[in-house]
Amino acid sequence: MKIINFLKCLLLITFVYGVFVSCGVRKNLTEIKKSYADSVHLNIKGNLILPEIIWDNKEIYLQAFRRMEACKYVYNGRFKWNIKNGAILKISENIFQYLVQVWKNDNKNLATGQYEIRMTPEGYYLALPKDSPTDIFKPLR
């Protein structure tokens, strides 16, 4: 009987936590939109597939990356994001699409079961092979 009550409480706590997290994600998006209302629009000309384009514009790219990372979260072992376009964050569409494609590729890798989500010391999520060293980026569990 105690086990059943424990499981019921655990289920309820999980549900309530899920509701708060999903509401928090929506609230954060509203806050994020407001926080960039007076910000500079970030734009990089050229094909971002080419490393030299990103490298030559690394300051702009890193600012855009940080804005987008603020909208990325983990749900059911996959990366999710709550933005539909770069305009919301004052990021050019080519930067937005590039990072979304990176995240989609990460999700494909995660689906193979050979990758896992890890967190950097700065709090960014990465999809890395399970057999890679864990001394720097700890598995998210």
Protein described:
- There is one protein chain.
- With 141 residues, the chain is of the alpha+beta class.
- The protein is built from four helices and five strands; from the N terminus they run αααββαβββ.
- The longest helix is centred in the first third of the chain and has 34 residues, at 2-35.
- Mean pLDDT is 79; it is low at 4-27.
Structure keywords:
single chain, 141 residues, 3-stranded antiparallel sheet, two-stranded antiparallel ribbon, 50% helix, 14% strand
Alpha-beta content class: alpha+beta
What string gives the helices and strands in order? HHHEEHEEE
Radius of gyration: 18 Å
Number of helices: 4
Per DSSP E runs of 2 or more residues, the count of β-strands stands at 5
- Which descriptor suits the 3D outline? globular
Q: Which sequence of strands runs across the widest sheet?
A: 4-3-5
What would you say about this model in short?
By secondary structure, the protein is of the alpha+beta class. It has helices at residues 2-35, 51-56, 58-69, 93-111, and strands spanning 72-75, 78-81, 115-119, 125-129, 138-139. The chain is globular, with a radius of gyration of 18 Å.
List the helices and strands and how they pair.
Elements: H1 2-35, H2 51-56, H3 58-69, E1 72-75, E2 78-81, H4 93-111, E3 115-119, E4 125-129, E5 138-139
Antiparallel strand pairs: 1-2, 3-4, 3-5
